[in-house]
Amino acid sequence: MSKPRAWSRPVPRDAWSDGQARPGAREVPEETPVALVYDASTYAVMMATPADLEDFAIGFSLTEGVVDAPDQIRGLEIVDQPLGVEIRMWLAPDRAARLAERRRMMAGPTGCGLCGIDSLEQAVRRWPPVGGKETRLTADDILAAMAALDAAQPLGAATRAAHAASFWRGGLIASREDVGRHNALDKLIGAMARTKEEAANGAVLLTSRVSIEMVQKTARLGAPILVAVSAPTALAVRTAEEAGITLIAVAREDGFEVFTHSQRISA
């Protein structure tokens, strides 16, 4: 395995204020082409932060439906290339045969959430309703969770240009960052799959807006509650309602808004 790439680096810049320019430097995140390769054939190329790439590979494979469980990936190798990173995976025979039916070459922009989609039905695909009907959180729990998320973003704090996704159950269980919001959530899902962490009684926390893909990925994880700092789209709200997910958005220091399945939240 090649030496890992840096997550961020300082770049020179002139800072203007009061009509004057002051030379200096700013820390900025790396954005690297990451190719996801299954059985020697590229499935997707994503622009991502080159960190936690094994988590990213497993989470992406799960949310894209390439595999149903991490053990269906028989081998995984991360190879540094001059222009980016290749994540080479080898699938169990039945999964390899299934993937061969829909294999294609594609590329996604930063945080692309619809790679591998070739029909309208796939774009709005539904996952089975999540469990966690008995899961309850208080308003104070939600505020404490988002405060913990704010403190668990070293890349975001250094650059102000990265997203985070975390899982909370009485405290932060896992947290991942990336320049792409979809990538951050895939990394979180991969990390939890690798450690076999149950998601049925906790909440996914996001620093981004809530689009349908973020709800779909949360449903794939099986988490009953999704909390984000920004607002959702209308399709995300409808999808969360159908998936049985409590969708909480515009979560700030002074409160939040509950859009679906509010029975899980108490005063």
From TrEMBL:
<dbReference type="GO" id="GO:0016783">
    <property type="term" value="F:sulfurtransferase activity"/>
</dbReference>
<comment type="function">
    <text>Required for formate dehydrogenase (FDH) activity. Acts as a sulfur carrier protein that transfers sulfur from IscS to the molybdenum cofactor prior to its insertion into FDH.</text>
</comment>
<feature type="region of interest" description="Disordered">
    <location>
        <begin position="1"/>
        <end position="28"/>
    </location>
</feature>
<keyword id="KW-0963">Cytoplasm</keyword>
<protein>
    <recommendedName>
        <fullName>Sulfur carrier protein FdhD</fullName>
    </recommendedName>
</protein>
<dbReference type="GO" id="GO:0097163">
    <property type="term" value="F:sulfur carrier activity"/>
</dbReference>
<keyword id="KW-0501">Molybdenum cofactor biosynthesis</keyword>
<dbReference type="Pfam" id="PF02634">
    <property type="entry name" value="FdhD-NarQ"/>
</dbReference>
<comment type="similarity">
    <text>Belongs to the FdhD family.</text>
</comment>
<feature type="active site" description="Cysteine persulfide intermediate">
    <location>
        <position position="112"/>
    </location>
</feature>
<dbReference type="GO" id="GO:0005737">
    <property type="term" value="C:cytoplasm"/>
</dbReference>
<dbReference type="InterPro" id="IPR016193">
    <property type="entry name" value="Cytidine_deaminase-like"/>
</dbReference>
<dbReference type="InterPro" id="IPR003786">
    <property type="entry name" value="FdhD"/>
</dbReference>
<dbReference type="GO" id="GO:0006777">
    <property type="term" value="P:Mo-molybdopterin cofactor biosynthetic process"/>
</dbReference>
